[in-house]
Queue: 3 jobs
Job 1
Amino acid sequence: SSGINAEYGEEETGEGGETKERKIDLVHQFKLVECTYMNKKGFKEWLTDEDNLKRWKKYLTDALQEKDFKLSDEDAAAKVEGGVMKEWKKELTNFAKFLLPQWKNVMIFHDAKEDIEGAKIFYVGDDSGDHFYYIKDLYRTDKF
């Protein structure tokens, strides 16, 4: 994924007027399910929900340990507490500021497992094309 920055990746899907068809193809290809329960208010709540923040903190800790297997649980947690989480939340806020003003062009999907806790994929469609964003450390694909 090309990172816009460390926290969210963007998938570009070309230009032109076939926005709807292309979007449906992508949705079909990745077996995405539209996340109809999340409106603008719900999105804001999701971002600030205490349980989510706890879980995301754990994801960030896990992500650090995946990159550096020698990192102990305590050290990884200390890094997250010591700035990683703060930085991450700042990016999340930036992402929200980017998304909210164009909410009418936003659709939210999750993968076929409908993991309510997990990754949301944010689709933004406008004249310049289709963009799918996901929040990197929340996007956990099954490893085989």
Note: Helices lie at 19-29, 40-48, 50-67, 73-99.
Job 2
Amino acid sequence: MDTIAQHLQQLSHSVRVPRSVPGLVSQRLMVMTYMEGLPLLQLKDKVAHLPQWKKDKAARGILKRVSEAYGQMILGEGLFQADGHPGNILVQQGGRVALLDYGQSKQLGEEDKAAFADLVLAMHK
């Protein structure tokens, strides 16, 4: 989690990752920084009153931030949070997203990163 936070530092204006609290990490327990925000699935009710164009714009912004983060994780260092379901994504004030739950993190080798890049390019065709 701390390593991923470092790798995503350049996106910190739009994506946040919790960090472990030094001295409060053991084999059985890890305390991390608190992330404020609304779970992605609860956002629908919060914005129900907005015009459709505003909801669409917000959805595109959230998707862009999450996509940039996962693109950087997977294609950059190859270390990524492998449990990216909506319950692990918070939307914060100003539209920034927080990515939670690093219990399932995976490391891709160069060959796997290249194969993933090929897959993304093939989907774009």
Note: The mean pLDDT is 92.
Job 3
Amino acid sequence: VGLVACWGTTRGAQQAACSDAPFFKVPPGASFCGGANLPPVRHSLYVPMSDGVGLAVDIFLPNGWGTTNLQQWKLGGAEPLPTFLHLTRYHRSNKRSWLTRFFFLFGDPPSDVLSVRSLHYINMFVPSGYAFVTVDVRGTGASFGSRPLDLIEREILDFKEISEWVKEQRFCNGRIGTGGISYDGITGALMAAQGNIDAAALLFAPGDIYEDIAAPGGVPCTGFVDMYGQFTTASENNEPVLDVDNELPGAYKLVMGVMLDGVAPVDNHAEWWIDDQDFYQSYLGLGRSPEQELAAAVKEHRGNFDMKAAIRNPAIAAKDDTIVEVDGKGLTFHDVGISTKTFDGLREHKVKVYSVAGYFDSGSIRSAARLHNYLGPQQSKLTIGPWSHGCRACYTPSAASTVPQYELFADVKRFFDCELKGECGVTHHPENGTINNPGMRTEAPVHYFVSGLDEWRTT
């Protein structure tokens, strides 16, 4: 199964593709299946927030990093790593079905778990000397808690607390990057604006939830909200994801329906290096199995925000109308998502930001352009291409295919290599070794694709 999956991925690059070839040189070995690298080592645990809610966390470390003897590893002896901290509402990891747990799958070796949302990042970053940490945000996946509304104050405080926790861990060298596609990019920006983060890759991440998504131009976007609401509700309740209006790719439906079996439970593989043993005994030592812990967490999600009902509520028409009340306070769209307060925090903490947006993706260009203009070229870079959401498809008039050529995740990696490792452009010479050059920092701050002419321009 794994050989077929990797072959299909590699073969796709050789077939007809769109005309959006990268403007940068893609380094050797930058592939979905991760080349010949040994699989990373996964650790899983709950991390408590200040209000007692436990967030499900998976940690991926390079194979062979430190030692296989857990007690020796706990005592040190391995160099700490730059860390990619990823916050998602779309399942940090998934449980494999009985059909696939004994086979290689998309280059991943036999196991009980496949990190669908993070697989690109894990294969791209971990073998190159990064730690990768992925978190189910409050009220989603295997995490406890509920969501009276998305991206409000309590959830945003979680982001700061989890970044502080990661920074204190032995695997982290103190240099942390964050970000991701869509919601994962929003969470990355909100976390980075509170400190502890050095670089943020915001990929197709809408900023103003009202103006860019929910009601662009003041018109409620019920079609999108219906589809997205059904998708997230099913995901948060650990139910099969509904395919609303046949919008989801066939390959995704196959993976989710046949190869996977919902969100992965926390299996407490990391209890040996938790410093707070009192917490371990009280929180993880309850005698419940991982599946029972998961069921208890999912039960708390039942009262999550219903965005489908909200978008049709006649009392919620303007941006400053109250959506819900939490602790006696009416919350509006001004309280949700990225705001000028976020921009100020990113500037204050001197976070380097790389935004990627697509012409065929809701309001992601407006969001990315606003942020870039606010931060300025010394702190921000921006790339705009002919893509749909997540660079999943490419549209140009003369292209033979909608399959993108652009290496999105290789682009993110070179950004993090520059900002977290100081490797700001690497030229590979088979005979003379590797030579560093200024690379990405000397590039123009903005790259944009001109469809029809099919060329990249800069400004």
Note: The chain has a mean pLDDT of 85.
